């Protein structure tokens, strides 16, 4: 999912490079494409990204550091997708500016490409910097968690040049992989638009900057850049649709009839020719709304563009419906036939400016029109949607600047209120304890326990963790209350460390509680490692630590609760709804993002060391989180190639090089992930003694079939008819590379992520209907904790060294 203010095009940028401006009828006079940090031009499908040196006259100061991904990574990445412009980066150790000569004043796109990697002493995931253009702040103290990101801005250039400045934050540096500055068609962005939810009825946009936050095509269809005249990517609306059960999808791009306005520059026929439509096959749905949810950054106004095109109504049909943003009406009666002169297939778009709000979610709804309580035949649909953030009064598009003044005021108010409350509380406590003097001895003992907790000490006062690094320490009594004194009815998993229970805290937060068993061989070492590791991480694809307890010889770790358990259970359990092929690909992508963050987010690589399907968990929305860091290790020093350590992990997933030489590297995680990929494809355990001898080992069986070109014979039978041949071939190639005997021959997790995103793009959207069925099954079925228990499908007896908790989630992602 994309965060507000960011277009996460990821693998789709490879498709963007395939555009030929002239052949599509758009040839901008300002068209700067730069492969930053490269010493040679990169010709990518007739688009030429010029070497950074070609722009030396406009880069000031000219000093720069050119960073390149090592040749091994290059080969793995470029073999499958054309990611040439991501192979290099320009690193700025001081404020530096590009100055672009502008031939024609007007709206220009500024696209910034970021793909962090490690080069010498520069770990780009740790870069922190700001970017400005003209008088606008585009990014402020920005830091990329990982993955591949494109930021897209729209600026109205009213001078003969455009200056783009990169400024490193204190004690840090800046970087960029590629950038574009391209003139836009005049009609694309309006001078102003109607404002809703504010005192203004109209607002001018001529002096403001925009940032594309969401660009979505309805109809459950992704539109790739090569199908858009202006090389835009349009994401499918499926994952944003709130109630999929009330929707049906229509695709008739051949019915679209462009006129003088709007032109194909506003949106291509592949957008106007698809729609998500209210399903009226059931009468109970005739008064429902179609609603999509989008994350946005509060405190900003947004330009929201609706795209409509009636492709299927009859002459006698009425096409009038209501349009809402959140609880505000955009139109009570949008008469589409009247607006398009009753021409079937003629596109129409509508721009409105949404007021600034503190709501982090924007809900877009269309619903049937009614009069006097009677519903006219409810032809209700939407073809496309764009949401663009508008720069604020500080000429900023960055949320940190937007909230700075509010934060200052909040600090002042907070301090004032805090002092007042502290005085009142002190008086109340004084009176309370004066009346409860007889409980002084008990009270003193409690104070000692809490003091130790704040200092990260055990019950004897011995320090285990730094209080500045570790989260909340829970009293044992609170955990016993949350788990009904570790009731077996709340047991959701058993692993090498101990049992895992579902718990509910007093504020109704669901948690997973992992309680160390007294006889556990992993014990204190794994307990300490997992807490220290998890305390460093905050990533949407890594499970979050909530707290811990080390009271009365107990070793307990508390995590967020994952509603849908483990990937392993969903692959093997016949009692759970099946995962579609597309959903399996999305899960692989999410897990790869989590591992990529571990490998690149700190000075030293964090090696997970126990990557397996049981440690890949799914929340209530089937979003992926990698779990169980009890065996994790920090990677080698800069002058070392590996970490020498005793072999730990799970049988069937172990890197053979690590197993035989006891030399651990991040490529050991890559090997384990390759095993998971074949699990996902085949839907069977890594070791299954019940099968014929040649099929007992999943890795040996799958690799042999891959080498013989027989992958289609080992695909999970439940995926019959879902997997495209080219997708299957590419997915198998990536998994096979991960399973190379020598670590040096395996791709990095970053390269695996690139390739998986490419596979997902190849797959398209056909598999999403299966996913919808899966979600509906999850929503309508009742699955007990025991059924979702990781213990229901155990590892081979005695070989799993860390089987974690299952079914953990919280209502909001971190």
Going by CATH, the architecture of the largest domain would be: Orthogonal Bundle
Give me the count of strands.
44
Helix content: 10-25%
Query: Largest sheet, if any?
Result: 13 strands, mixed
The CATH topology of the largest domain: Transferase(Phosphotransferase), domain 1
Could you name the CATH class of the largest domain?
Mainly Alpha
Radius of gyration, CA atoms, in whole angstroms: 28 Å
The termini sit apart by 12 Å
Mean pLDDT: 77
Strand-residue fraction? Answer: 25-35%
Shape: globular
| Separate helix tally | 17
Structural category: alpha+beta
The CATH homologous superfamily of the largest domain is termed: Transferase(Phosphotransferase) domain 1
- Give start-end ranges of low-pLDDT stretches: 1-24, 70-82, 404-409, 437-471, 766-814
Number of domains: 4
Provide the fold topology:
Layout: H1 13-16, E1 31-35, E2 42-44, E3 47-51, E4 59-60, E5 65-68, H2 71-78, E6 88-92, E7 96-101, E8 106-114, E9 118-119, E10 122-123, E11 129-133, E12 136-142, E13 149-157, E14 161-168, E15 174-176, E16 178-183, E17 192-196, E18 202-204, E19 210-217, E20 235-236, E21 247-251, H3 269-272, E22 274-278, E23 290-295, E24 301-309, E25 320-325, E26 328-335, H4 336-339, E27 347-354, E28 361-368, E29 370-371, E30 374-375, E31 381-382, E32 384-390, H5 399-402, H6 404-435, H7 440-454, E33 472-473, H8 476-482, E34 491-494, E35 498-504, E36 510-516, H9 523-536, E37 545-549, E38 556-560, H10 567-572, H11 581-600, E39 606-607, E40 616-618, E41 624-626, E42 633-634, E43 643-644, H12 656-661, E44 663-664, H13 666-682, H14 698-707, H15 725-738, H16 749-763, H17 768-780
Parallel strand pairs: 1-3, 17-27, 19-20, 33-37
Antiparallel strand pairs: 1-16, 2-3, 4-7, 5-6, 6-15, 7-14, 8-13, 8-16, 9-10, 11-12, 11-14, 13-19, 17-18, 19-32, 21-22, 22-31, 23-28, 24-27, 24-32, 25-26, 25-28, 29-30, 34-35, 35-36, 36-38, 37-38, 39-42, 40-41, 43-44
Helix pairs in contact: 11-13, 11-16, 13-15, 15-16
């Amino acid at each position: 999912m994309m965060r507000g203010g960011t277009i996460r095009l990821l693998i789709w940028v490879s498709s963007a490079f395939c555009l030929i401006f002239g052949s599509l009828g758009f040839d901008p006079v300002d068209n700067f494409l730069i492969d930053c940090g490269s010493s040679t031009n990169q010709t990518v499908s007739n688009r030429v990204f010029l070497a950074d040196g070609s722009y030396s006259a406009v880069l000031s100061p000219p000093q720069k550091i050119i960073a390149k991904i090592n040749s091994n990574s290059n080969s793995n990445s470029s073999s499958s997708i054309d990611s040439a412009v991501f192979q290099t980066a320009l690193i700025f150790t001081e404020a530096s500016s590009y100055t672009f000569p502008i031939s024609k004043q007007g709206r220009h796109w500024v696209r910034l490409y970021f793909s962090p990697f490690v080069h010498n002493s520069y770990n780009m995931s740790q870069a922190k910097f700001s970017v400005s253009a003209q008088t606008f702040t585009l990014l402020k103290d920005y830091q990329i968690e990982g993955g591949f990101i494109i930021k897209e801005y729209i600026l109205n250039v009213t001078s003969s040049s455009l200056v783009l400045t990169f400024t490193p934050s204190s004690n840090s540096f800046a970087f960029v992989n590629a950038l574009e500055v391209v003139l836009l068609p005049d009609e694309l962005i309006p001078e102003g638009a109607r404002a809703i939810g504010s005192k203004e009825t109209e607002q001018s946009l001529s002096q403001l900057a925009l940032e594309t936050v969401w660009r979505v095509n309805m109809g459950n269809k992704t539109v790739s850049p090569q199908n858009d005249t202006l090389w835009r990517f349009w994401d499918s609306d499926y994952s944003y649709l709130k109630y999929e059960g009330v929707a049906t999808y229509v695709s008739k791009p051949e019915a679209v009839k462009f006129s003088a306005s709007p032109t194909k520059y506003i949106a291509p026929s592949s957008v106007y020719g698809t729609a998500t439509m209210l399903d009226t096959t059931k009468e109970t749905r005739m008064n429902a709304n179609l609603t999509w949810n989008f994350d946005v950054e509060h405190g900003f106004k947004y330009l929201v563009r609706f795209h409509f095109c009636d492709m299927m109504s009859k002459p006698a049909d009425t096409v009038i419906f209501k349009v809402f943003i959140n609880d505000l009406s955009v139109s009570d009666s949008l008469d589409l036939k009247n607006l398009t002169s009753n021409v079937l297939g003629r596109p129409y778009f509508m721009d409105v400016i949404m007021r600034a709000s503190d709501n982090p979610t924007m809900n877009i709804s269309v619903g049937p029109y009614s009069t006097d309580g009677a519903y006219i035949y409810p032809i209700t649909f939407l073809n496309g949607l764009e949401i663009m953030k508008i720069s604020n009064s500080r000429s900023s598009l960055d949320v940190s600047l937007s909230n700075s003044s509010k934060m200052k005021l909040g600090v002042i108010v907070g301090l004032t209120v805090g002092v007042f409350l502290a005085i009142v509380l002190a008086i109340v406590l004084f009176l309370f304890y004066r009346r409860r003097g007889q409980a002084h001895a008990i009270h003193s003992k409690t104070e000692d326990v809490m003091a130790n907790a704040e200092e990260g000490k055990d019950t004897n006062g011995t320090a285990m963790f730094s209080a500045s690094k570790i989260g909340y320490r829970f009293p044992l009594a609170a955990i016993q209350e949350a788990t009904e004194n570790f009731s077996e009815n709340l047991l959701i998993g058993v692993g090498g460390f101990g049992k895992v229970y579902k718990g509910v805290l007093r504020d109704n937060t669901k948690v997973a509680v992992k309680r160390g068993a007294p006889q556990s061989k992993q014990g204190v070492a794994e307990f300490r490692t997992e807490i220290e590791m998890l305390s460093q991480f905050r990533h949407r694809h890594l499970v979050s630590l909530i707290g811990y307890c080390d009271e009365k010889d107990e070793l307990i770790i508390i995590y967020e609760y994952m509603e849908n358990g483990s990937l392993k259970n969903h692959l093997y359990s016949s009692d759970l709804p099946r995962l579609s092929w597309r959903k399996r690909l999305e899960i692989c992508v999410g897990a790869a993002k989590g591992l990529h963050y571990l490998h690149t987010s700190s000075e030293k690589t964090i090696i997970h060391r126990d990557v397996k399907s049981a440690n890949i968990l799914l929340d209530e929305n089937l979003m992926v989180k990698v779990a169980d860091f009890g065996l994790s290790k920090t990677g080698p020093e800069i002058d070392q190639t590996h970490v020498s350590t005793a072999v730990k992990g799970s049988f069937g997933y172990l890197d053979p090089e690590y197993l035989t030489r006891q030399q651990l590297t991040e490529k050991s995680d890559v090997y384990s992930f390759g095993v998971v990929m074949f699990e996902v494809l085949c839907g069977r355990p890594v070791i299954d003694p019940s099968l014929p001898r040649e099929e007992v080992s999943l890795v040996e069986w799958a690799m042999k079939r891959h080498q013989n070109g027989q992958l289609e014979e080992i695909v999970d039978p439940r995926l019959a008819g879902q997997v495209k041949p080219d997708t299957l071939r590419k997915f198998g190639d990536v998994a096979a590379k991960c399973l190379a005997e020598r670590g040096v021959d395996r791709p990095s997790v970053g390269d695996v992520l690139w390739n998986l995103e490419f596979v997902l793009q190849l797959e398209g959207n056909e598999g999403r209907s299966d996913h919808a069925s899966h979600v509906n099954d999850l929503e309508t079925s009742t699955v007990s904790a025991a059924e979702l228990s990781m213990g229901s499908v155990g590892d081979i007896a005695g070989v799993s060294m860390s089987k974690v908790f299952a079914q953990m989630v919280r209502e909001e992602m971190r």
